[in-house]
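Sat 14:20. Reprocessing the chain from the morning session after the first attempt stalled halfway. Input below, unchanged.
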Amino acid sequence: MSEFEKQKQGDIYDPADADIQELQVACLEKMYDYNATRPHEAEQRQALMKEMLAEVGEGCYIEPPLHANFGGHYLHLGHHVYANFNLTLVDDTDIYIGDYTMLGPNVVLAATGHPVLPALRRRGLQFSMPIHIGKCCWLGAGVIVMPGITIGDNTVIGAGSIVTHDIPANVVAVGNPCHVMRQINEQDYKTYFKGRKIPEDLLAAVQHDKFREMRRIKQQLPMQDAERILREGKTAIMAVQGDDGYPYTVPLNYVYMNGRVYIHSAKEGHKMDALHRSDKVTLTVIEKDDVVPEEFTTYFRSVIFFGRARILTDDAEIRQAATALGLKYNDNPQAVKAEIDKFWNALACIEITPEHITAKECIELVRKK
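Finished this time. Tokens:
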């Protein structure tokens, strides 16, 4: 097996191998040219990035100077990735950075390490493990990411943190070693810095940009109809990100309360594993679904609810959600309380906050109005 092959598959290898050295020098020459460009030479910088990097999407930019063992040869950028001054890559193997991710100044992505055993280090040997950084992440100034780390989509890593283990999606994580401080939550949709409110027009624009317009706009129902269907609906179909990338859908009971959906679950299982992996969910509630044989169709009316799920941890919140859910299907408060108490130790409740809600009905019902 060649040293190149060992390098790419995570084995211990010798970086002084002649073939590795030849490639490395050629890559460093291109990086030297990139760092020597002047601020007004934007087109030249873009052209050099396409030569230097393994992949580069649209709208990417790296502020010179860039410091990298292989000049970015193993760096894979999605679209609209931005890196501030002094990005340092120990890029002896692949580093993946997703769309719209931002890196502050002096960030270090170190995909390579050396064995703890001194005798191996005396031989100059090392190993390299890929780094994966998700979409729309923000790594603050001075963050250091160690070999083999994965950081999930939308996550924020606080300035100066040292990331020594995987960090999930949709969290704020800080420290040395870096740890999850909190989930990205409802408050982050209201304020951006020390209580300063996000302008309503900007929030509206962000939400508008994120979700598609309904293609058959004539069939769209007003929001009051959507909320009525959510209140009165009996069953929802929830879709989550299941195992191995497969969507996982499940029918479930739910209650719509104070603008949010609440569901219950066992504490373990496919659904809970998916929610730990990603808090993005979609719910479909069908109010009307009448088969019309002579027209080879159904007359339907339905809602699609896009939202973010939060697994409740406060006992009072869990009991409130479970009680509301129980009373929707059984109007006997004593019976509901008894049922909750019976299954309390195995009970989990999830709150789903909407990001986008649409409702529509079939064109035949529209024509009948």
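Residues 3-184 form a domain with the UDP N-Acetylglucosamine Acyltransferase; domain 1 fold (CATH 2.160.10.10).
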